[in-house]
Write a structure and sequence with these properties.
- It is elongated and about 75 Å long.
- The termini are far apart.
- The chain is 12% helix and 44% strand.
- Strands 3-9-8-5-6 form a five-stranded mixed sheet. It has a four-stranded antiparallel sheet with strand order 2-1-4-7.
- The longest helix is centred in the N-terminal third of the chain and has 13 residues.
- The mean pLDDT is 87.
- With 146 residues, the chain is mainly beta.
- The relative contact order is 0.21.
- It has two helices and nine strands.
Length: 146
């Protein structure tokens, strides 16, 4: 058995006490994107390439983009605002409010197809915590219609 001096034991105790204060814990958001019932993308807050391109003419009456969003810091009193907006005037076209995560949110593609003057759209989620903490805004998907 090793024999540590009192000074060494104190130093180890101080390091074990102070070391956790220097750590940084980051949270991670994650989401899946579906075209109708088919998974077309899985992303997280570290993902850089979140763009999907669809052919405008191939969009049918009942086609949807759905998003299943989650994170590792769920909030029981938060509200989550999901939105899709067109990128020319930044007009929100569809908005959905939810009190919980991990439930699919659906956006009809026919609405986007009708915006013939715009071909770029952005899907996002805004988490409102109703506290003094910083609320988060996350871009989930950039959709381009060709």
């Amino acid at each position: 058995m090793m024999n540590y001096s009192k000074e060494m034991k104190k130093l180890i105790l101080i390091l074990l006490t102070i070391l956790p204060l220097f750590g940084y814990a980051d949270t991670l958001d994650y989401w899946s994107i579906y075209l109708n019932d088919s998974l077309i993308g899985q992303y997280n807050s570290l993902s850089e390439d979140i763009e999907i391109v669809l052919n405008r003419e191939s969009i049918k009456q009942n086609d949807t983009i759905s998003i299943l969003y989650g994170n590792d810091h769920p909030c029981s009193q938060c509200e989550y605002y999901y939105a899709v907006k067109e990128k020319i005037y930044d007009t929100k076209l569809e908005v959905e409010r939810r009190n919980h995560i991990l439930k699919e949110v659906y956006f009809p593609l026919l609405t986007l197809k009708k915006f013939i003057w715009c071909k770029e759209f952005e899907f996002s989620v805004y988490m409102n915590s109703y506290t003094n903490e910083k609320d988060t805004y996350t871009i989930l998907l950039r959709l381009r219609l060709e």
